[in-house]
Amino acid sequence: MILNASDLAWDESSGEDPTFPVDQLGNTPQYEVPPLTTWGVALCVSGTLIAGENAIVVTTILATPSLRAPVFLLLASLGLADLLAGVALILHFLFLFCVEPSDWSELLTSGLLVTSLTASLCSLMGVALDRYLSLSHALTYGSSQSRQRAAILLLLVWLGACIIGAGPAMGWHCLEEPTSCSVARPLTRTYLSLLCGGFLIVVVVTLQLYAGICRVARRHAHAIATQRHFLPSNQSYASKHGSGRGFSRLVLVLSVFVGCWMPFSLWGLLGDASSPPLYTYATLVPAAGSSLLNPILYSLRNKDIRKVLLHACCPHRFSHSAHTHYPVDV
Fold first, then answer.
1. Which listed residue, of 70, 117, 263, 324, carries a Cα 20 to 30 Å from 141's Cα?
2. pLDDT per residue over 94-124, tens digit each?
3. Spatial separation of the C-alpha atoms in residues 16 and 25, rounded to whole Å
4. DSSP conformational letter for 295
5. Cα separation, 86 vs 48, whole angstroms
6. Residue 58's closest CA among 114, 115, 113, 120?
7. Of 274, 253, 118, nearest to 185 (Cα)?
8. What is residue 183's three-state secondary structure?
9. Around Cβ 193, how many Cβ atoms within 10 Å?
10. What predicted TM-score, i.e. pTM, was given to this entire model?
11. 8 A C-beta contact, residue 82 and residue 107
12. Cα→Cα distances 6→23, 35, 191, Å
């Protein structure tokens, strides 16, 4: 889905594929692995970093009984999805530069990458929904009923992501009809258009949720300021207690979110098989790169997760004391 061996070895001027040369007797020699490129090295390194980083997050959450609030379930889902994205990148590198590629290897890597990116994007929407509910329903947040709803939501997210990711293996591919290919081979243009259209819907819904978070937070800040007898024209209570800092963090999160997902979603709708592959790489890399940034922007910013990690690294220096979970601090 990211890079094909044919893109590296195909010689359009001659119309022959040097990867499988045929001698004068008509015999096809053994497959020759294409030479390693800078793109290939970056692909392997980034996949390894993504997988390792998210494996730490998922292990930390699952191994800590105190991290069972709805937000941690969502962060574990996000980490697992990004972990699978890293694995997909590593497999793509192995199939491209280490072993002979085949139709099933392309379908496997593309299906795994579609599944992971779909689950990652939906988990990000779930995190935004959790933030909104933690502010608008603060009294009931974190109850057993909330955890059950979060678990059901994640079950639906992963079931839908697996069904969508199985599309290429179920026939939504262009291996037999190259003219129906999209900008991301072996996905068909119809399949990728539906996928990117769904991505855009999730992006818009997520932005609406964050807009609702801002409105609720502003009402809370105004109510607190009114109770403390602050005038609206003066410096607000929220600004004195770091709302400007929180707003800058929110702008950073939204900028990364839109910057990573919007380019490929639009390009998948507008491009076709005749489009330059460079544009596909330039838009797909940020979408995959979001898997590298998500643990930093979401999981590692949480105070409870940081405490667990610090205690695991330095058990004698940091005591694993009881702590209070702040659901909005994610």
1. 117
2. 888 887 778 888 889 999 999 999 999 999 9
3. 17
4. I
5. 6
6. 120
7. 274
8. coil
9. 17
10. 0.80
11. no
12. 20, 13, 21
Q: What is the token pair recorded at 42?
A: 């970056």
Alpha-carbon 186 to chain mean position:
21
Instruction: Please give the structure tokens belonging to residue 77.
Output: 């889902």
CA-CA distance, 263 to 203, in Å (whole number)? Answer: 12
Which residues, including other chains, have CB under 8 Å from residue 287's CB and lie 6 or more apart?
117, 260, 261, 263, 264
Count CB-CB contacts under 10 A for residue 101: 21
Question: What does DSSP assign to residue 30?
Answer: -
- Find out whether the peptide bond into 186 is cis, omega within 30 degrees of 0: yes
How far apart (Å, rounded) are the C-alpha atoms in residues 113 and 290? 13
Contacts of 132 (CB under 8 A, 6+ apart): 209, 212, 213, 216
Q: Where are the alpha helices (H) located in 166-242, listed in sequence order?
A: 189-227, 237-240
Measured CA to CA in angstroms, residue 98 lies from 33, 123, 186 at distances of 7, 33, 20
CA-to-CA separations, 33 to 98, 106, 289, 322, in angstroms, rounded: 7, 16, 27, 55
DSSP for 107-176 reads HHHHHHHHHHHHHHHHHHHHHHHHHHHHHHTTTTTTSHHHHHHHHHHHHHHHHHHHHHHTTTTTT-B-SS
Q: What are phi and psi of 97, to 5 degrees?
A: -115, -10
Rounded to whole angstroms, how far apart are CA atoms 308 and 97? 39
Percent of the chain exceeding pLDDT 90 equals: 25
- Residue 269 CA to residue 196 CA, distance in Å, equals 7
Estimate to the nearest angstrom the gap between the alpha carbon of 211 and the chain centroid: 21
pLDDT, tens only, 266-316: 888 888 878 887 888 888 788 878 899 999 999 888 888 988 888 888 776
Q: Which residue reads 């979408």 in tokens?
A: 287
For the CA atoms of 143, 79, 67, 328, the dihedral, rounded to the nearest 10 degrees, stands at: -60
Buried b (16+ CB within 10 A) or exposed e, 55-72: bbbbebbeebeebbbbbb
